[in-house]
Write a structure and sequence with these properties.
Layout (H helix, E strand, L loop, with lengths): L3 H7 L21 E3 L6 E4 L6 E2 L4 E3 H15 L3 E7 L4 H18 L5 H9 L19 E8 L24 H4 L6 H16 L4 E2 L6 E3 L3 H5 L17
Parallel strand pairs: 2-5
Antiparallel strand pairs: 1-4, 2-3, 5-6, 6-8, 7-8
Length: about 240
């Protein structure tokens, strides 16, 4: 009989799959917690050098679910690595401005409105006022997997491999194997996808690394659409 891990590795990703309803209820007022307290590693590398971060926060239920996923991965010498968790309004603004600057540098021949559209495919623009990133609710994460006990071993999937094109789509490697890295990426994306789905997380299909639980996007994918979901947290209490 195949283990859960083996099933995850061998089962193709279906981004049109309707997730099974999660029995856990969402407490909209649930506190943020340090994921390090749940044995989950966080690495920050969006700005500056990559380094382990002790102060990444998520909602408590989300952290507990990640801990459960790690229990299975641990048996196979792997662990989750969180690249981004809850994000304050200030951090969202900083990330947006960095993303916009990179888009301006990369697409010098485009008009500003077209550059803006490019940037908005990669990051939520916080300035319209009513637009918030799911990261600002504490229910969204950017994550990957790495080998657990060998610091010199490369990440199984590197968040720095963001390509800003169709290759970032979660199931891209299921039908495309025309680059050397894609066969390995197919297996690794499957592991991440099914591991996260096992605890009720939903994936944003354009970003293989982005998962959510308890957010408004998550709620819309549940049958009957739960009444409660996590709301914006501008600043940590």
């Amino acid at each position: 009989m195949l283990s859960d891990f083996d099933k995850w590795r061998e089962t193709p990703i279906d981004i049109k799959r309707i997730p099974e309803n999660d029995d856990a209820s969402v407490d909209a007022d649930e506190p943020l917690v340090l994921i390090a307290d749940y044995g989950v590693v966080a690495l920050h590398s969006y700005q500056g050098p990559e380094e382990e971060s002790p102060d990444v926060y998520l909602r408590q239920t989300v952290a507990q679910k990640l801990q459960s996923i790690n229990d299975i991965l641990d048996e196979n010498g792997l662990e989750l690595v969180i690249r981004e968790g809850w994000r304050s309004l200030e951090e969202q603004i900083n990330l947006w401005e960095t993303t916009l600057k990179r888009a301006q540098d990369r697409y010098k021949n485009l008009s500003f409105s077209d550059i803006l559209k490019k940037a908005e495919t990669l990051c939520i623009n916080p300035y319209p006022g009513d637009s918030i990133s799911s990261h600002q609710t504490g229910g969204a994460i950017d994550c990957t997997i790495r080998y657990k006990n060998n610091e010199k071993q490369p990440l199984v999937m590197s968040h720095d491999d963001v390509l800003a094109d169709e290759r970032d789509i979660t199931d891209h490697c299921e039908t495309n194997q025309n680059e050397p890295w894609m066969h390995e990426a197919q297996t690794h994306r499957r592991l991440l996808y099914h591991a996260m789905a096992s605890e009720g997380f939903v994936n944003y299909y354009k970003e293989w690394w982005h998962y959510e639980w308890g957010t408004s996007s998550w709620a819309k994918m549940q049958a009957g659409e739960p009444e409660h979901h996590y709301k914006l947290i501008k600043q940590h209490p």
